[in-house]
Design brief:
By secondary structure, this protein is of the alpha+beta class. It has 11 helices and 13 strands. Among the domains are: 2-74, no CATH class; 151-202, no CATH class; 348-410, no CATH class; 414-442.
Length: 442
């Protein structure tokens, strides 16, 4: 132990001596090198640099020589600290304007006060170089008060109290905000409009910049009625009008002109008398007669089919009389009313093969362990092909000749179950290996 301590002391002394020799080699005219006691508490100076060894301190006199000292000695203070130093606070803990300000400006944020000083006292204000003793604290920049600082001096108001466009405007633009009127004037009358230099007597009030194609409003195309609805521009027998201009355009395409578009629409070039009449569609009452029970009857001869809904009668006619039947083109005088499509011979249905249970569901005719039953015979047929006989045919099926005990079992392992089994087997194998390793260590 003593030998270790001796070695440590020896190396420590050697390190101190080497460091001292290096520093002595860097000696200059205005530098003093001193070895200080590390346990002495003294104030920090700005001209102090610490070496790698904490016992040695180097003092530089940096007035004459330009030395690059560590950044820690010359850190720029944060702006928040500068605001605290150069701006005073009042009772409410708000920063006060450092000038003799007639506004007595105060704010909680120092940066806002700095903006105020730039705007009202000194345009070249900088918080870093600001010194209250070297500045004229009575400096103040007055606001430039324009003659026309209000919209009322330029724009007239209507009866409702809204600003009106001063030009002879076809849009009759009106708004509660003067800024919106200025935006409208720059878009539709004068792009270089200025509120301060505007004079109504010296300008051409008839100037108007039309809208570009593709950006037209419905107000430019259609007129409005008393109910504030867009009216159809044609001599329309329907007297069509709607609040949405898009609906009026769709009405024009249906009843007047199919090729009209919003961009190319011109009220002066259209044919005002153009009109496409409605196609009067036939209804079931016009084609099918009704019997005593108020149901629609099949119009073909020797057919007693009747249903309360006309659509069911149409389906019946296409199955049993005419596959190409059309309600709109049907005419009894030109139609062969004796036409009939017979059923296929010996054609079996689901009711002829499958029995029904108490719930009126078709039962599986096989000795089925699932006891399958369904309201739709199609689903029962699908079940039989999957679980009993893949070559099952409804027309050739005979319950006496068929093997009713036939059964196709389900696949025991699907893809998901196989993966699960493989994972379980891997886990068990790993667990067994770990147990063997533990036994071997013991």
């Amino acid at each position: 132990m003593l030998i270790k301590k001796i070695y440590i002391l020896f190396f420590f002394v050697m390190a101190v001596m080497v460091n001292h020799i290096v520093v002595m080699g860097m000696e200059q005219d205005n530098a003093a090198f001193l070895i200080k006691n590390p346990f002495e508490k003294k104030q920090k100076d700005n001209n102090v640099v610490l070496t790698l060894d904490p016992l040695i301190r180097i003092e530089y006199d940096c007035k004459d020589q330009k030395k690059r000292l560590p950044r820690r000695q010359f850190r720029v203070p944060s702006k928040k600290a500068l605001y605290d130093e150069k701006f005073k606070k009042n009772k409410d803990n708000k920063f006060m304007c450092p000038y003799n300000c007639p506004e007595d400006y105060t704010n909680k944020r120092g940066d806002v006060v700095a903006v105020h000083v730039k705007a009202r006292h000194d345009e070249n204000f900088d918080i870093r170089t600001f010194d209250s003793e070297k500045v004229d604290l009575n400096a103040y920049i007055l606001l430039v008060q324009s003659k026309k600082n209000k919209y009322v001096d330029v724009f007239e108001k209507n009866e409702i109290g809204r600003f009106m466009c001063p030009y002879n405007c076809p849009d009759n633009y009106v708004s509660t905000r003067g800024a919106d009127v200025i935006q409208h004037i720059r878009a539709r009358h004068d792009k270089g409009f200025d509120l301060q230099t505007f004079d109504k007597e010296k300008i051409d009030t008839d100037v108007y910049i039309p809208r570009k194609r593709g950006r037209r409003d419905f107000e430019d195309i259609f007129e409005k009625n008393e109910n504030d609805e867009f009216m159809c521009p044609y001599n329309c027998p329907d007297d069509y009008a709607h609040k949405k201009g898009q609906w009026v355009m769709s009405h024009i395409r249906k009843r007047h002109d199919q090729t009209v578009t919003k961009c190319a629409f011109d009220r002066h070039k259209l044919d005002p008398d153009a009109y496409i009449p409605k196609v009067e569609l036939k209804k079931y009452v016009d084609v099918f007669e009704k019997n005593e029970n108020d149901t629609f009857r099949c119009p073909y001869n020797n057919c007693q089919y009747a249903k309360p809904h006309g659509s069911e009668v149409v389906v019946h006619i296409r199955r049993r009389h005419n596959k190409l039947f059309n309600l709109q083109t049907f005419n009894r005088e030109n139609e062969n009313l004796n036409a009939y499509i017979p059923l296929k011979k010996n054609c079996k249905r689901y009711g002829d093969v499958f029995e029904k249970n108490k719930k009126k569901e078709f039962k599986c005719p096989y000795n089925c362990p699932d006891r399958y039953a369904h309201k739709r015979g199609k689903d029962v047929l699908r079940h039989i092909k999957r679980r009993h006989d893949s070559d099952f045919d409804l027309q050739t099926f005979n319950q006496d000749m068929a093997d009713l005990n036939a059964w196709i079992p389900r696949k025991r392992c699907s893809g998901i179950k196989r993966k699960r089994k493989e994972l379980v087997e891997k886990d068990t194998q790993e667990a067994r290996r770990k147990k063997k390793k533990r036994k071997m260590r013991i």
